[in-house]
Specification:
With 143 residues, the protein is mainly alpha-helical. The chain contains six helices and three strands, in the order H-H-E-H-E-H-E-H-H. The protein has one domain: Rossmann fold (3-Layer(aba) Sandwich), CATH 3.40.50.
Length: 143
């Protein structure tokens, strides 16, 4: 989220760029961190809009005998984003929270803008989510 600032700081202070080279590297290391936490009994909030990472965590929980209702693992997404992931996890009995950024508008808006840009750029995620929301609305009207 702060790539430009971190790269600039690293250059100014003369240390290696700490930012991942690409999204694939970011996903790989995020998933490795999740695995490390689960395998070592570290309490975890998996804050991601990445469906694949969420599914991998479910597999790790099953593999390590962690009950979906355990306080050891929570799934979390930004309020208003990836509701399809949140709903399906909660509906399957997993612990899910939605987070809401709070603070002065000048501090919160850049964060939300970055999140929206990230999620809209991930393989058409925004249009996919919109279609899922429309389908869910139709389903609820029928019931």
């Amino acid at each position: 989220a702060y790539m430009e600032k971190e790269r600039e700081r690293a250059e100014e202070m003369g240390y290696p760029d700490p930012i991942q080279p690409n999204k694939a590297a970011t996903d790989r290391d995020y998933d490795a961190a999740i695995a490390y936490c689960v395998e070592n009994g570290i309490y975890l909030v998996c804050a991601t809009h990445n469906e694949k990472s969420s599914l991998q965590l479910i597999d790790l929980m099953n593999l390590n005998g962690i009950d979906p209702k355990s306080d050891l693992v929570f799934f979390s997404q930004l309020y208003g984003m990836s509701d399809n992931i949140s709903f399906n996890l909660a509906n399957s009995g997993y612990r899910v929270v939605k987070y809401v950024p709070y603070g002065p508008v000048e501090k919160v808006m850049p964060y939300l803008t970055r999140r929206a840009a990230e999620n809209s750029s991930i393989a058409g995620q925004s249009s996919r989510e919109f279609e899922l929301v429309k389908r869910e609305m139709k389903r609820r009207k029928r019931n």
